[in-house]
Amino acid sequence: MPLLAAIPAVSIYIPLLAPLLNWPSGTLNISLFHLYGQPLTSGLYWTGLWIMVAIVAVGLGGAVAAMRVREVGS
Hints:
Layout: H1 2-20, H2 32-35, E1 37-38, E2 43-44, H3 46-69
Antiparallel strand pairs: 1-2
């Protein structure tokens, strides 16, 4: 659970720290918030949005597959 909470917390700071610390531009792709862009000011970043949708679909598929294999209630 702490790891799941740390991922969005770190993702908030990556776009802020990358220019200050002269990190390469590819580092911004690690941030969850960079993947969907700034929809209120510049519109959606569709490529990043589809990447996030694919990650969610794979994770959901894995979770559903794991639930089908496990015995619950016995």
